[in-house]
Write a structure and sequence with these properties.
This protein is mostly helical and about 200 residues long. Helices cover about 60% and strands about 5% of the residues.
């Protein structure tokens, strides 16, 4: 899965309609350019590509009185909304993925109802456990990495990463169940979290 699709669709959705600069500003405000491929060129390319694919509807807006080319605003189509929630749900439960996809999913998890987010994260924990078990069929952590030579360090790293992520995910579920954050149907999940809210 490409994190850029999830990020761009999610950012457009927050505004209802947004032009490329707004999407770019939000993603930069969230630091996405540091942990993903959400660079300016990638963002504008993704907007145009997803408009061609019918996921976004492009509205051409008249140029400003200061001149310049017409600005294009994008909004999610019904197909785009379906794609967004499919990508989001898949990213929340899937363990074998790059960190940027996981990070994007956590950033947008509040677009789901609280109970659904909890259920998806619990499923993620279950899948981490199943993945860990598949590794330990070939590698016994208690015997240390040396049993497989230096290649054992790879499996050792995998196990430590899985254990750490499972522990973090369980903590996140606990925080959500105790009422942390604002989820869909509870108010505005992104209040104060868009670039324009910061006076930019």
């Amino acid at each position: 899965m490409s994190a850029i699709r999830l990020l761009v669709l999610g950012a457009v959705r927050q505004h209802g309609r947004a032009h490329g600069y707004q999407v770019r500003s939000d993603l930069e405000y969230w630091g996405a350019h540091e942990w993903s491929h959400a660079k300016p060129g990638s963002i504008y390319h993704a907007l145009k590509q997803m408009a061609r694919q019918g996921l976004l509807h492009a509205h051409e807006i008249a140029p400003s009185t200061a001149g310049g080319p017409p600005r294009t605003e994008y909004e999610l189509t019904e197909k785009g909304t379906e794609e967004y929630f499919t990508l989001l749900r898949d990213a929340l439960v899937t363990y074998d993925q790059r960190g940027d996809v996981k990070t994007a999913a956590i950033g947008f998890m509040v677009d789901l109802p609280r109970a659904e987010a909890v259920a998806l994260l619990q499923e993620r924990t279950r899948r981490i456990g199943a993945w860990r078990s598949s590794v330990t069929e070939h590698y016994i952590p208690e015997d240390g990495p040396e049993q497989l030579g230096h290649i054992g360090e790879i499996m050792n790293m995998w196990i430590h990463t899985a254990d750490s992520e499972a522990e973090w995910t369980r903590g996140l579920v606990e925080r959500i169940e105790k009422g942390a954050y604002t989820f869909a149907g509870e108010g505005d999940p992104f209040a104060g979290l868009l670039a324009e809210d910061a006076g930019g």
